[in-house]
Amino acid sequence: MFVLENGAKKKGEDPRLQAISQAIRVVPHFPKQGIMFQDITTLLLDHSAFKDVVDIFVDRYRDMDISVVAGEVISEKYVLEYGTDCLEMHVGAVQHNERVIIIDDLVATGGTLSAAIILLERADAEVVECACVIGLSDLKVRSKLNGKPLYILVEPRQVENGF
Ligand SMILES: O=P(O)(O)OC[C@H]1O[C@H](OP(=O)(O)OP(=O)(O)O)[C@H](O)[C@@H]1O
Ligand SMILES: Nc1ncnc2[nH]cnc12
User: Fold this and answer.
1) Which GO terms describe its molecular function (predicted)?
2) Is 117 in contact with 127 (CB distance < 8 Å)?
3) Which residue, by CA, sits nearest to atom 7 of ligand 2?
């Protein structure tokens, strides 16, 4: 699934993932020293790569009886790599037993996804899976997700890529 550091592809990898990864701009040491900020604005501007992101998610979830896509989400505070934040969701935005996928651009600590899961479960929705364009397939992150599967397209980029 992931693009390796040397640009080689893992066996069986979707050929679209390399272009998706390369369209992400890395901003070293932003907003703090030591953070390799993964800026997806360049991915959003790359119509072909962004279409591939949407197509991959649509293909994955089209037959899973999903009724809600929670792109941004009562309120739940959480901790990020570089501070704390809070997610909010309209009361009534999700009905009991609705099947939800949570989509975000990136997972780092898993705090945001964890807060989103807590919010949605408080509304009695069923969170089917979390999906992110960028993230590490990290056990520490997965352990925060209350057993929910995490689907990731590409690893964070480590180097500035000339944008
Ligand atoms: O896994 P975590 O440690 O919670 O980090 C992931 C979150 O960090 C970024 O959001 P951020 O709040 O920085 O701002 P943005 O949504 O405006 O990009 C990103 O979009 C995720 O939502
Ligand atoms: N390295 C990173 N790049 C972009 N968004 C983030 N959110 C948390 N860590 C991040």
Assistant:
1) adenine phosphoribosyltransferase activity
2) yes
3) 108
Full-model pTM: 0.78
The one-letter amino acid code at 96 reads: H
Residue 57 forms part of a structural domain: yes
* Residue 27, both tokens: 């901003």
Overall average pLDDT of the 84-97 stretch? 80
**Residue of the nearest CA to atom 13 in ligand 1?**
80
Residue 29, classed as helix, strand or coil, is coil
- Parent domain of 116: 16-154
pLDDT band at 160 (very low <50, low <70, confident <90, very high): low
The token pair that represents 12 in the structure block: 């069986």
Q: Ligand 1 centroid vs 84 CA: distance in angstroms?
A: 10
Looking at the domain assignment, is residue 8 inside a domain? Answer: no
Asked if residue 114 belongs to a domain, the reply is yes
Binding pocket residue ranges, ligand 1, CB within 6 Å: 80-81, 85, 104-112
Per-residue pLDDT for 6 more than 90?
Answer: no
| Nearest atom in ligand 1 to 114's CA | 4
Residue 74: the pLDDT is 66
